Amino acid sequence: SNAHSERHTVAASVLLRSPASGPPMAEGAGSAARGHARTAAILALAFACLFLVAGDDGAPGGAVFALLFIYVTSYAGGLVAGRLSLPPLLGMLCVGLLIRNLPGLGENVGSRVDAKTSSAVRSVALALILTRAGLAFDVAALRRLVFVVARLAVLPCLAEAIVVFALAMLLLDFPPIWAAMLGFVVSPISPAVVVPGLLSLQEQGYGTTTGIPTMVVAAAPLDDVLSIAGFGIFLGLAHGGGEGGGVSWLDFAKAPLELVLGVGVGAIGAAILAALSPASEEGATTGDRSLLQSRLALLLGAVLASAFGLKRVGFSGASALSVLLLSIGAARAWGAASTKPISAKLAEAWNLVAQPLLFGLVGSAVAVDSLEPRTVGVGLLILMCSLSVRCSVAFLVVGGRGLRWQERLFTALAWVPKATVQAAIGALALDEATNEEEHRMGRDILGVAVLAILCTAPAGAVAISVLGPRLLMLDKKEEEEEEEEKPKQLGEEAPPQFSASSAAFAAGPAGGEAEPSAALVQPSGCAAVGSPAFEAGARAGAGVLPGSVGRKGGWCQWLVL
Question: Contact 89/359 with Cβ under 8 angstroms?
Fold first, then answer.
C-alpha cells in the first residue's frame, strides 16, 4: 500500500498479520519449548535436591519423596481437568486415588506418606481455604440468613445420620451405638470440596444477591462440628461399654463446648489482630507493602495456631469454625480494601500449593482394597437412601426466604460432597476395636466411608462447578460489567462516543489530511496508536493492545478493526 494508506491502516495491518508470515510464530513455538524444558529441569532439580537433603526419605519409596510426587502429579491432574472444563480438584482427587490404588505406585508411593504428616498438611490446606472464605464473607447476608444457616447446618446432618443409623442396624446387623457411629461418619460434608467451588461462584457474581455462597460456607463448619462431636460421643460410649466403664460427661458436652470454643477462640484471635494492626494504622489505606506482609503473617500465624491448638486439646471440630470466624473478624477490622491483596496472596498459595496437596492426599488416603464385596452393595444402598433424604431436607429447610426453586436445588446439591472428615475419622472405629466382631464393624465403617468419598466428592465438585452458573442468578452489577466487556459485533451501530472517530477513520484515505492520532479517539485504558506501548504490541504480534487488557479490551479491538 502507499504511504498515505499505511498511516491509516498501521493498526489493522499489525493485528491482522498472518501467523504464518514469519518470526512471531517461530518465536512462540521456541518460547513454549523453552518453557517445557524449564519445567522439566525444575522437577528434576527438585527431586535431586530432595534426595540429597533427605537421603532415603527423599528416594523412591521414601515418605518425603511420596509427598512431593503426589504434589507434582496432582498439580498436573488439576491442569488436565481444567483443560477439559472440569473442576481442578476433580483431577487432583483422581490422581491421588490412582497413586494409592494402582499396582506398583500404591506400594511405593501412595501408602508411603506418613499419616501424621498427611493429616497436618491437609489441616493447613483446609485452614487456608477457610481463611479465604472468611475474608470474602458477606456479613450482611449472614444476618439475613442466620436462622436458615442454623437449620441447614443441623437438620440435613441429623436426618442423614438417622437414616444411616436405621439402615446399619437393619442391613449390617450393627448394635445401636455402632450404627450411630456410622451415621455420624457418613453425615458430615467436606468444606474442602464445597468452599472452593462456592468461592469461585461468588467471585464470578453468582448467587451473591441472595447470599447463597455465604449461607453454605457459614453452615459447613457447623455441620462438621455436630458430626464430629456426635461421632466422638458414640465412639466413647462404644469404648466405655467395651471396658465395662461409663462415659465421661465431657463426651456429652463436647458439641456445645466445641461451638463455644470455636466462636470464642475466633473472636479473641480477631480482637488481637485488630489491636496489633488497627485499620487506622499508617499505610493501611495506601497499600504499604511491609504492612501487607506483616498482616498476612499475623493472620496465617493466628489461623494455624487456633486450628492446631484446638486439635491438640481434643476439640478438632471447633478448629474450622474458629478459623472462619477469626478471618471474618480480621476482614471487618482491616476493611475490604486492605484485605483484598491479602486474599489475593492466599488465593495464589491455594492454587499453586495447598489445593494439589490437599486433594492429592485425600485421594491417596482412600484404599479401594479395603472395600469388601458385601460392604460395597450394602454401602451403596445406604448412601442412596441417606443422600436422598439429605438433599430433600436441605431443599426444604432453605425455603421461606424468597429463594427460587433453582437456588434451593443448588443448595441441596452443594450439601452432598464428603471427603476430608470421612478420611480423617473413617478408620478410628477400626483402630479402637478390641475383638473380632468390633473389627468386622470397624472394617464396614471404613468401607462405607471410602464409598462416600468415591461417590460424592467428584460428583459434588462437578455439580457445584457446572450447575452453579445455570441455577444461580448472576449479580446485576457483574452482568452489566460482562456486557460492557463484550466487543461490538461487526455491522452493529457504533457507540456515540466513537462514531465521529470511526467516520474520520473511514474517510481518511479520501480526505488525505487526517493523521491517525487525530482521527482516533483513544478510550480509557487503550494504548495510543504510535505510542511505545502500541509499538511493543505491534512488534510482539499481539492480538490485543497492551493497554487494552480489562474492561475496555473489546472496545480497543473493535476500534482498531
Answer: yes
